[in-house]
């Protein structure tokens, strides 16, 4: 069978797989083909040593030398343009490229070089025009037509793709080209805004095109059948699709196991043909009783048949697929027979039938089926499952989802019965008995995890939990010998006993949450650091360390932890929030930039990469994947995390550079930031966060009953546990909170951008002139944005009032509640409101605006008061030692960052005020000179502004002195002198190492915040009027 694949014959397709913009693409291969051998020897160093190795300036020089001798050498011009593009001279590069493009070149080398350049410029639409011209001049070129099709694919022009595919097929009648055109019709249907148009025009036309090939018996490849099935499925023609799958064409579906059967099952379900669904599931389960995907279909069909009171026909025929099980007794018997077969096997039993029995039990209980008719007692069935599979790591995940079948009274009994099946050695001096091999260890570990999942760990009192931690740590250290036994073990391999360490860390977190004793979190950090030293690739250790360090306000160790996770592709979207949430708020701005870049680099490459995936799908005939790639691209473009990181990164750049390195206006211009455009897709935002990334054994509901553990635990103190799994309501509230904070930040960013137009610098007394210059429009836009910000702050206050608390292993709270409670948001809004008052003052002039000047001066005074309150709430000891215990107050650091952000915005607003007040003051002084007015008193607003700048100077001085004091105090702490109770020397060393990291991180944060505040102090000198 000939595969549906287009084999490229040019370097362009070979290079199209690179995710980077052709950094290692040997442009010498292109240039060599376009010049004579004598010339090629002269320019070889240019191609090989300069452009390909990143020496773009020398490449440009060599291209210029070549062009002096050969003025019309297109390739040399384009390669020079590539060099210019890579040195940041985009305008020159574009001009040179357009010069060649207007000549409509048809040589393969110039076209490929231009394609590379336009893709580096992110202008794929220009490639289409390039090949459109080439196809007109060389209409019978298969190669250029195929390049034109792929160029259309990169810009998503499905209609032109359809036309290009048919044009290709007419030139070279190959099936792949024909079905490219068909798939482009399907994509028109998928992307059509009018569903009726898709169902009445695009899909029927695609169906007729495929049917023509079917009638002519020209269907050759599996991909063509898959496409035919996709079209029928989207048209809702399930019967016709079923005929295709069960007919001769279905025999071509061979690339995936049971592909035909799965498609038939899906169609039977859609058609609600439950007898066939049931019978087919039976046959497939008889072949492979461990294939879980067919058990749900088997059970679902049973209950649908029961609801319909279905029974076989009088002649005894069930359905075309065979016999049907339409009663619970028949299904129970079928499952029990599969279990019996497994029990009688000499080899290892399969888990599927045993899990199927538990699943059936769960579903029968949900339907209120009588207990006496159930296939056994849940406790006994789970004990039997543990007996067979308890030594497998998957046992805990298998049983965990069925623990709800047990009554609360059975929890301890269940654990005790499992414990009896765990072979342990003799008890040691510490009273603990340990497993002697890895299988016993796995069984014991499973029992411990099930105990926590049932809430028995949470029910212990403080002493009981400390005893539990000691036991878990002992088992962890004992289990390390199994992992270290083989000297050939790789560093990336995990230890068998890692889960003991992780569970002990969770119990430490329970104690920290319940008692507030910070010693617990320090010992938890030490334990996790020790675990990471033995299992350097354990992602759960890294994730939990990352969360705890952030909760303690320590960001410095987090960047390396996240980097070592080696997040791939979409993980930057699903778990990136763990890093970026704390990036800026903890005062390490350089690390924050790096953190944002982790995510933005992925999102920015998404559009280009997805286009390449689509092209590869066309080339290899993976048509069913193309809609999935499009959906993935849309999902990422609409990602909440993408919008957050993009907004925070631009704000961060302003806080770091605006009026420090560049002026605010230059910074806004460099970012191409527009106050008029809201680039956040609010209506289609997608929450792609993975909120279950942490391993979590917490029960869903609280255990209110007093419990006793036979093997592991002591009686407990009955206070309600605080740790539970994330609820659906908390997920919803978290998303609502994230959107509210994003809206505040986005509006703040746009308002800052609206301060920058240079038209405000001159006096605009004439309203018509104001409108001509756009000042009136900017004023109305600024007012509109302020109104939106105030409305958003009001709505955000209502969200904050709910005081939603999330589990520590759930989503982190945003900065919203802290920003509102400290007054940062309202102070920023008041500062941004100043521009409106100053525009009114500019129109009225200084002579007749006394009331307005008083109002503006009151705002000046209010801003100083609010900033002082924010600074006061930032004062206190970040890190202190009390009674030989180390205490942290990370909220003070976050408040200090709020002060920095707020004072920066106040200074930008003050700078805007200065631009308007300077010409007004100068104009007033000129008038007084003409009138020979002896009154030298300054206008009220000018005095108020001078007072504001002086107060801001004092506030910044206070803040810098406070930071200097904190740095001295934290540096003076002697952490080595701390005595850690209940820790061995090795454990204490890891704990103190964690403390050192927090201390170092605090100092780094204070240094960066202090440096930025000092730079802001310098900018006040520019506010003199």
Automatic annotation (TrEMBL):
Q: State the Gene3D superfamilies in the record.
A: 1.25.40.1040
Q: Which family is this protein grouped under?
A: Belongs to the MDM20/NAA25 family.
Q: List the biased-composition ranges (Polar residues).
A: 761-773
Source organism phylogeny: Eukaryota, Metazoa, Chordata, Craniata, Vertebrata
Described function? Non-catalytic subunit of the NatB complex which catalyzes acetylation of the N-terminal methionine residues of peptides beginning with Met-Asp, Met-Glu, Met-Asn and Met-Gln. May play a role in normal cell-cycle progression.
Any one Gene Ontology cellular component term annotated for this protein:
NatB complex
Q: What is this protein's record name?
A: N-alpha-acetyltransferase 25, NatB auxiliary subunit
For region Disordered, the annotated ranges are: 758-778
Subunit info? Component of the N-terminal acetyltransferase B (NatB) complex which is composed of NAA20 and NAA25.
Per UniProt, what is one Pfam family of this protein?
NatB_MDM20
Keyword terms: Cytoplasm, Repeat, TPR repeat
Species this chain originates from: Gambusia affinis
On whether Cytoplasm is a keyword of this UniProt record, the answer is: yes
Compartment(s) of residence: Cytoplasm
Tell whether Cytoplasm is among the UniProt keywords: yes
Domain of life the protein comes from = Eukaryota
């Amino acid at each position: 069978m000939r595969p549906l694949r287009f084999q490229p014959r040019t370097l362009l397709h070979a290079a199209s797989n690179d995710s980077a913009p052709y950094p290692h693409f040997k442009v010498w291969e292109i240039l060599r083909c376009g010049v004579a051998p004598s010339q090629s020897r002269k320019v070889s160093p240019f191609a090989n040593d300069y452009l390909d190795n990143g020496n773009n300036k020398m490449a440009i020089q060599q291209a210029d030398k070549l062009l002096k001798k050969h003025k019309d050498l297109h390739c040399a011009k384009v390669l020079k343009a590539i060099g210019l593009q890579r040195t940041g001279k985009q305008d020159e590069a574009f001009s040179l490229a357009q010069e060649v493009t207007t000549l409509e070149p048809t040589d393969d080398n110039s076209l490929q070089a231009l394609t590379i350049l336009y893709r580096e410029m992110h202008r794929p639409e220009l490639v289409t025009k390039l090949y459109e011209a080439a196809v007109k001049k060389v209409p019978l070129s298969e190669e250029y037509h195929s390049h034109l099709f792929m160029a259309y694919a990169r810009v998503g022009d499905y209609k032109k793709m359809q036309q290009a595919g048919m044009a290709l097929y007419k030139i070279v009648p190959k099936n792949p080209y024909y079905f490219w055109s068909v798939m482009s019709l399907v994509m028109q249907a998928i992307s059509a805004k009018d569903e009726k148009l898709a169902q009445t025009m695009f899909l029927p036309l695609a169906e007729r095109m495929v049917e023509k090939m079917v009638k002519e018996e020209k269907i050759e490849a599996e991909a063509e059948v898959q496409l035919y099935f996709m079209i029928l499925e989207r048209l809702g023609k399930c019967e016709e699709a079923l005929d295709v799958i069960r007919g001769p064409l279905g025999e071509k579906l061979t690339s995936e196991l049971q592909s035909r059967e799965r498609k038939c099952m899906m169609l039977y379900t859609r058609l609600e043909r439950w007898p066939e669904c049931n019978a087919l599931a039976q046959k497939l389960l008889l072949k492979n009783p461990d294939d879980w995907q067919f058990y749900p279909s088997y059970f679902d069909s049973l209950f649908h048949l029961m609801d319909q009171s279905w029974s076989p026909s009088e002649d005894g025929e069930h359905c075309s697929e065979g016999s049907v099980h339409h009663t619970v007794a028949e299904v129970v018997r079928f499952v029990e027979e599969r279990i019996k077969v497994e029990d009688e096997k000499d080899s290892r039993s399969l888990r599927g039938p045993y899990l199927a029995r538990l699943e059936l039990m769960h579903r029968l209980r949900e339907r209120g089926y009588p207990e006496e008719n159930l296939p056994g007692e849940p406790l006994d069935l789970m004990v039997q499952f543990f007996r067979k599979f308890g030594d497998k790591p998957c046992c805990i995940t298998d049983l965990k989802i069925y623990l709800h079948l047990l009554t609360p009274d059975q929890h301890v009994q269940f654990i005790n019965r499992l414990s009896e099946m765990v072979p342990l050695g003799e008890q040691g001096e510490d009273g603990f008995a340990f497993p002697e091999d890895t299988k016993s260890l796995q069984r014991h570990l499973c029992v411990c995890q099930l105990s926590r999942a049932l809430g028995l760990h949470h029910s212990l009192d403080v002493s009981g939990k400390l005893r539990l931690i000691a036991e878990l740590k002992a088992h962890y250290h004992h289990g390390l010998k199994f992992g270290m036994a083989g000297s050939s073990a790789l560093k990336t391999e995990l230890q068998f006993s890692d889960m003991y360490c992780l569970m002990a860390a969770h119990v430490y977190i329970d104690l920290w949450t319940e008692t507030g004793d910070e010693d617990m979190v320090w010992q938890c950090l030490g334990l996790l650091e020790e675990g990471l030293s033995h299992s350097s690739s354990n992602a759960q250790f890294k994730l939990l360390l990352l969360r705890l360090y952030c909760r303690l306000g320590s960001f410095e160790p987090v960047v390396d932890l996240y980097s070592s996770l080696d997040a791939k592709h979409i993980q930057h979207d699903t778990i990136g929030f763990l890093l970026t949430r704390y990036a800026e708020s903890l005062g390490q701005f350089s690390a924050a930039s790096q953190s944002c870049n982790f995510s933005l680099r992925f999102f920015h490459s998404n559009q280009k990469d997805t286009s390449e995936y689509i092209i590869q799908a066309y080339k290899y005939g993976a048509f069913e994947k193309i809609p999935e790639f499009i959906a993935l691209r849309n999902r990422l473009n609409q990602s909440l995390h993408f919008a957050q990181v993009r907004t925070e990164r631009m704000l961060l750049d302003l806080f770091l550079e605006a009026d420090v390195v560049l002026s605010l206006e230059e910074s806004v211009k460099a970012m191409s930031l527009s106050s008029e455009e809201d680039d956040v897709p609010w209506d289609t935002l997608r929450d792609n966060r993975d909120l279950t990334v942490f391993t979590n054994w917490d029960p869903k509901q609280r255990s209110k009953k007093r419990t006793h553990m036979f093997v592991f635990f002591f009686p407990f103190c009955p206070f309600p546990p605080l740790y539970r799994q994330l609820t659906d309501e908390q997920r919803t509230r978290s998303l609502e909170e994230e959107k509210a904070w994003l809206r505040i930040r986005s509006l703040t960013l746009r308002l800052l951008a609206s301060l920058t137009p240079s038209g405000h610098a001159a006096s605009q007394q004439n309203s018509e002139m104001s409108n001509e210059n756009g000042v009136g429009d900017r004023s109305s836009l600024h007012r509109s944005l302020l109104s939106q910000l105030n409305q958003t702050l009001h709505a955000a206050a209502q969200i904050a009032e709910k005081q939603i608390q999330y589990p520590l292993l759930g989503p982190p709270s945003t900065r919203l509640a802290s920003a509102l409670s400290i007054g940062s948001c309202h102070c920023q809004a008041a500062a941004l409101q100043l521009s409106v008052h100053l525009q009114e003052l500019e129109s009225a002039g200084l002579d007749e605006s006394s009331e307005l000047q008083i109002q503006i001066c009151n705002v000046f005074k209010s801003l100083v008061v609010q900033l002082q309150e924010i600074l006061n709430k930032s004062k206190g000891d970040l890190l202190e030692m009390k009674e030989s215990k180390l205490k942290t107050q990370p909220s003070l650091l976050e408040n200090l960052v709020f002060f920095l952000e707020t004072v920066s915005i106040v200074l930008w607003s003050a700078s805007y005020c200065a631009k308007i007040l300077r010409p007004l003051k100068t104009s007033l002084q000129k008038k007084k000179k003409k009138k020979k007015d002896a009154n030298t008193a300054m206008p009220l607003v000018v005095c108020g502004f001078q007072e504001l700048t002086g107060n801001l100077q004092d506030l910044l001085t206070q803040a810098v002195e406070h930071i200097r004091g904190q740095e001295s105090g934290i540096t003076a702490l002697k952490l080595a002198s701390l005595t850690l109770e209940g820790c061995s020397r090795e454990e204490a060393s890891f704990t103190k190492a964690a403390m050192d990291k927090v201390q170092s991180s605090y100092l780094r944060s204070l240094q960066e915040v202090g440096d930025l505040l000092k730079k802001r102090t310098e900018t006040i000198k520019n506010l003199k009027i």
